[in-house]
Design brief:
Elements: H1 7-12, H2 33-41, H3 44-58, E1 63-73, H4 91-94, H5 104-116, E2 121-126, H6 135-149, E3 153-157, H7 163-171, E4 176-178, H8 185-188, H9 197-209, E5 213-215, E6 218-220, H10 226-237, E7 245-250, H11 267-280, E8 285-288, H12 297-306, E9 308-312, H13 325-334, E10 338-339
Parallel strand pairs: 1-2, 1-9, 1-10, 2-3, 3-4, 4-5, 6-7, 7-8, 8-9
The structure holds S-adenosylmethionine, 6-(5-methyl-2-OXO-imidazolidin-4-yl)-hexanoic acid and iron/sulfur cluster (SF4).
Amino acid sequence: MTKSNNIYENMKNPSINQSALNPEEPSPYNWKIEDIVEILEGPLLDLLSRAQACHREFQPGNTMQLASLVSIKTGACPEDCKYCSQSAHYTKKTGLKREALMDVEAVLAKAREAKDAGATRFCMGAAWRQVRDGKEFENVLEMVRGVCALEMEACVTLGMLTQEQADKLASAGLTAYNHNLDTSPEFYGNIVTTRTYDDRLKTLERVRQAGISVCSGGILGLGESIYDRARMLQELSSMDPYPESVPINTLVAVPGTPLEDQPRVDPIEIVRVVATARIVMPRARIRLSAGRRSLSDETQILCFLAGANSIFYGEKLLTTDNNDAAADRALIEAAGLKSL
Ligand code: SAM
Ligand code: DTB
Ligand code: SF4
């Protein structure tokens, strides 16, 4: 087959050496930082048009995946992520009540509820620095098996993993593991000091090695620059392969956390990041995640146009409120989308 000048067509043919693409065009798996910054900052309508073309080429049209979330173990986390309500470092100020690991049956009841409400993916989050072997992990494996038995996609986010633990999650049938890079490697130390960017990347490699699909994205509104946003997208897109699912969160400024007074992100900036993520990771599912509550219907629709094709669905995220489920269903219907 001859090489096309269209980089997206080339991507459909894995036999083509990506690095041998027209040097005028950025290689899809090796985006240069200046090219990502240029895309991110370019004229908005050009950006939207390019992202939409990419979206139509690589994603099933007019669909929206509904993912529901539950916090299976809440609070008292030893990590110091400055945005997080669940860090033990800020409990005195946030007043968040810690909760032990939920019972397997209670979690599965929530999963059934989510399925009945129309969700197809169920994500379980635990405020752990890392997984410890033992009864609690065995219970999480049981939850994963239970969610799979409901014929839902099962996703967990449990902190750092060993290879053995990742393999066990894979054997239990886990669809995806969520572990966000959050921001650029350069800015990361301003947000978290109790682990390194490299620790994050290592866990993601283990997840990949176990054959579990990767869910990894970030947060906007931490005080990062445009360059940091572009660097985060560069890090994600240069994983080989890049994540199947990319959550784009916007900071929910939780009172009592060090970032409680961060200024609100301009909604158009969110649209820009979604569009750029769609362009640099055309096959990924882009999830418009935390922070959606403060977006108008119109901004959300712009995000869908820019390439977002999944949302968190249900009244709660982990510890904060999410959009009203009926309002989400109405929005999806108004946009003529089919929920998956
Ligand atoms: N402890 C696990 C970890 O850090 O990977 C899993 C749970 S953690 C809450 C999952 C992700 O949620 C974080 O990486 C971050 O991107 C996002 N997140 C947490 N708190 C947030 C907030 N206040 N606003 C926006 N996103 C947030
Ligand atoms: C992700 O990227 N966002 C979700 C999920 N993965 C686990 C969590 C959002 C948390 C928002 C703040 C809260 O509710 O505590
Ligand atoms: Fe703990 Fe995860 Fe919150 Fe960080 S983001 S404090 S690791 S629960």
